[in-house]
Predict the 3D structure of the following.
Amino acid sequence: MRLESSDYFRGKKLRLLIHHHWQRQVVNASQPESLIKSLKMPVSHRPTQATQQRQHPPLKPSQNRLLPENGLSSQQTTPLVVPGMATGLEAEVPSSLEILSPPPPTDKLELRPSDLITEVLGTLARELNLEKRFKPSLQTRELRPFERGYWRLDCSSWEPELKRSAWGFLTDYLGRGAAGWGTSCRRDEAFSWIRLYCWGCVVGHMYLVLYLASRRRILHTGMEWVAGDGTAVVVISPRVSAT
């Protein structure tokens, strides 16, 4: 298949975007509050200064819309060194096995599916073209907006560095509220799998979040969205390498 020039430049832009997500620095937790932008959420829902752990470097305007505003991480946990990885700050990953999003707002009398899609997720869907990029290999039925389920991802074949960076990315993304409330993430202690829990109306958006977190590795490992009854409703099959 001939590769159109526009496709080439879009692919190059995407690779640069994904690469830029991982140019992070571990910063001191005592950084002045005046240097940190808080999320647009009630003060009671914002993380405290004691939980600060990481900070994003400056981004280009077109890239900055895909990330939550610079703020405080949701958790300050004891670093974990992934087996097989070099020691030092670059080898540290939050030791928590669970990531929680901020609590829901308490001022809404009526909840609509659109309320569960944050501004960051909406921008992510537009910039990465959700409809074009999210193409399940199999979907057994239509998803209900408020049903619960989780993306199940096998990451046993990932390199230790990718595991570290992916979990750090998810810790920041979910903890700062960019993925919306009601979203959480878990992994096993051996780091062989990740489960990202979400609402039915944001299944595609969470696919894009994992697409970025894994540096596109999900294209080659595949994954599935499991509904509340334990059945796989959405399946992403691994991409077959061209020979």
Summary: The chain has a mean pLDDT of 74. The CA atoms of residues 28 and 50 lie 11 Å apart. The first helix runs from residue 5 to 20.
